[in-house]
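How a chain folds remains the central question behind the approach discussed here. The record that follows shows the chain in one-letter code together with its fold in token form:
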Amino acid sequence: MILPIYAYGQPVLKKVAKPITPDYPGLTELIANMWETMEYANGVGLAAPQIGLSIRLFVVDSRPMQDEGEEDKGIRKVFINAEIVEESGEDWTHNEGCLSIPDINGDVERPEGVTIRYQDENFVEHLEFFDGMNARVIQHEYDHIEGILFTEYLKPIKKRLVKKKLDRIKKGEIDVRYRMKFIR
């Protein structure tokens, strides 16, 4: 089932999310719905706060972000109770966007590598290193479970330039092809 994506301004997007346990109600269905919602909206990641749940869960499919012919270097994974252990490498800038903040993109600097401890959908624990675009998508979604939005990384001048757009998103004055939930 395609779920509404919570728009910029919704308080749940600014909360630090809580861990979950294997007995979290309807988890299998929730994960399936998150995949379906993300794919319908043409996203490469979706965190539970973006669908109104303040829990430490996000899904990532970075394959569309890989260079042509290198899609197999991407990942498609579920991350539960994730904790970044270390960020490493040189910072690099890439233009990011977010399903909760449609029609706004901006250059964000992030370290090229990330080591992350997480549980998969079967609650098997993993400790893995990711780099490049995989690391970037993970870091962006991880920020969501920490209550951080990519707009917080924008340079001051860019923040001023997008302020009116952000206010319009907050009020629901935006047209997107997927369902969104706005502050009313």
User: Anything to note?
Assistant: The chain has a mean pLDDT of 96. Residues 21 and 123 are 8 Å apart (CA to CA). Residues 5-175 form a domain with the Peptide Deformylase fold (CATH 3.90.45.10).
